[in-house]
Design brief:
CATH architecture of the largest domain: 3-Layer(aba) Sandwich
Number of strands: 23
Mean pLDDT: 97
Organism: Lacticaseibacillus paracasei (strain ATCC 334 / BCRC 17002 / CCUG 31169 / CIP 107868 / KCTC 3260 / NRRL B-441)
Largest sheet: 10 strands, mixed
EC number: 2.4.1.1
Cofactor: pyridoxal 5'-phosphate
Number of domains: 3
GO biological process, one term: glycogen catabolic process
Number of helices: 34
CATH topology of the largest domain: Rossmann fold
Oligomer: single chain
Bound molecules: ligand NBY
Function: Phosphorylase is an important allosteric enzyme in carbohydrate metabolism. Enzymes from different sources differ in their regulatory mechanisms and in their natural substrates. However, all known phosphorylases share catalytic and structural properties.
Low-confidence stretches: none
Structural class: alpha/beta
Amino acid sequence: MSLTKEQFITEFKDIALKLYAAPLDDLSTQQLYQALALLTRSYIGQPWAETKKRYDQEETKQVFYFSIEFLPGRLLQSNLLNLGILSEVEAGLNELGLRPQKIFDAEADPGLGNGGLGRLASAFMDAMASVGMAGNGNGIRYQYGLFKQAFVNGYQVELPDDWMRNGFAWETRKENRAVTVKFGGWVELRPSRSGNLRVIYHNTDDVLAVPYDVAMVGYHNQVVNNLRLWSAEAPINAGTDFTLEQKERINQITQILYPDDSDASGKQLRLRQEYFFTSAGIQSIVRHYRRTHNSMAGFADRVAIHINDTHPAMAIPELMRVLMDDEHVSWDEAWRITLKVMSYTNHTLLSEALEVWPIDMFSGMVPRIYQIIQEIDRRFRLVFVPQFGQAMIDRIAPLGNGQVRMAYLASIGSHAINGVAPIHSELLKKDVLHDLYQIFPERFNNKTNGITPRRWIQIGDRPLSHLLDKKIGTTWRKNPLALRQLHDFADDTRFLDDLNAAKAENKRALAKYIDQVVHVKVDPDAIFDVQIKRLHAYKRQLLHVLGILDAYLAIKRGEKRPKRLHIFGAKAAPSYVYAKEIIKVMNAVADLVNGDPDVSKYLQVVFLPNYGVTMAEKIIPAADISEQISTAGKEASGTSNMKLMSAGALTLATLDGANIEIKDAVGDDNVEIFGLTEEEIAGYYQRGDYHARDFYDQDPRLHAALDMLVNGQIPGIETEGRDIFNSLLTYNDEYFVLADFESYLAANERLDKLYQQPRIWAKKALANIAESGRFSADFTVQRYGREIWHVVAKTPEDDHEA
Ligand code: NBY
């Protein structure tokens, strides 16, 4: 859209006056934010309605991305950017004597997810709208997001994230689109005169699912898609029948996000959440379709439903249920439609993270869904036992060991199953879903994750963005592959110096932010070494910490090194004791290092509390080194690796997840690879001959670093230091930290040396930025569109051009 600075100023003053009955200079920052958000929303309404109308009129095939998590990040700036009016608005605010950034910072970050899985879902929403794909999100409107993390005496403390305290400016309550979700009770199957089976539900607990829609604005293309988040309420007209307690119980369903990104803990409320948003989504899709079609025959040509990990896998039996019970479609026809509609992404290779539910809990909560899964299970066995044998089918049938096994259900009921990086997709076929791969080889494929450069470069990294505009023009903003033009300037020393200057500016800004948040004065000239991701044993923040301890000891011995600032951001699942112990140790190490004037000349450590999307936007542009150091074969893909490379950070990495593709993209000279490969680790497992203690005994530097955990040199970690020490030595170091220690140090030493030559460093940074375009989620969703969903992207401009 077009909007001049002058128009904006008039409209902004006007809306603020209407809203608050006061002139601008009387308003708080929060009020200014609310007014600006409302004005921005008013620009979105029309293209939003028109997009909807166009999809209906043209009978566009639509994608519905079902995810129990979304992490959109703040939306004001990104909506303004995508509408094409960010510069005008900022100029207008400046002219009014207001600070744009201060207003943007008044927005709460909707933390409706744990980590990469939730962020990926939101990147895809942004990307689908931006490439003109009819892509809708389906999720939960959690009253409370992921806990707010604080540190008290170095320990993680979890506080409620009341992110909607000031409302959520971007949502629209769609009361008229509410549906009823039924739990519990029992099911009567009664033959009817027509020969159909009539399904009668008795004694169910009904919950009203009310949708709140959030606009997903495409980049400069007049497309606005829909993210539908469901909220649980007591059914209407029954107000008098519900006690306060019953209402409370219903409201609880969408009250809080589960803060577990590790093992699938069997929580009843979690299962309730899964069925709630899945059933609501399926019902509303079918209802919308049936408004314009009188049978379900063509449904699969108009609808693709994607299951983001197994949390929404009940979409499969739920669609079967609606097709059969409500639409009177036969089993065979319903199954044909369901298979064609559904597709599934797996996000983990850790077997403890594969979701399973006890059958008695499951069948009690969703009896009809359980019946349908029983029938899926029966038919699956009937068809495949003769061909593949009882033992194999027992391993992978949807029901087994008294459990409903969601990954198997998802795989059996989808026409496509994908991993999120090549190594991950290969390991799915080889290990985790090997038996299913034998049966359905054609379903398996890879779709490497992606990120949105709009948020991470255009919004997050202004200095770099301006530099790019000056050097290669602005086409990279629409097509990030244009970043490849940067290769032409790999030997342009002026430009390399400019790149370093942009990085330095970002580092000064981050240093200021660090001082504000944790009151540590850091040296902006240090190497900024960043590890930002959930705290997990397999991600090996511990290896990074041991590297810091080694540096500490070396500096204490009098060694001089280029100054490094280690920056961590990481939340631990509240029930993950070991991860929380690592957090305590990280904080204690930070105190030790920063508090020692001999050491802090060369080494500083900052652990920023409450890492999330908004904080990532501040950290990533300032990073020199990106630590991607998971045990090879454990990280499905990673996405912070892609974001950091696009900011020109050099990747310090194991050959895991998408690190491998980053290495292939930039070449061996432009990343720093270390550590055991996945094959080498598999070899240790097979032979059973990994002995962590040997590394401790044989490597004096490792020995000394590990001893610091237990010898009292780090105050306050008696218990935690001992537990971690034991996990590595007594319990033989499940994640091969000790085996990779030496090569990790060597890689770090190479980076230290390299940093002494700023232009060579900048040249490598340039190569990373130049090749980061391929990881744009725009391309990722287009690959999903072509190969899985069978949809084509199209924008209103395409119509004009045609
Ligand atoms: O998904 C992450 C992977 O670890 C990462 O490698 C990948 O890049 C990213 C996107 O594909 N997985 C992830 O974020 N998983 C969770 O957050 C999660 C949440 C809940 C549960 C399990 C995992 N759960 O069991 O409830």
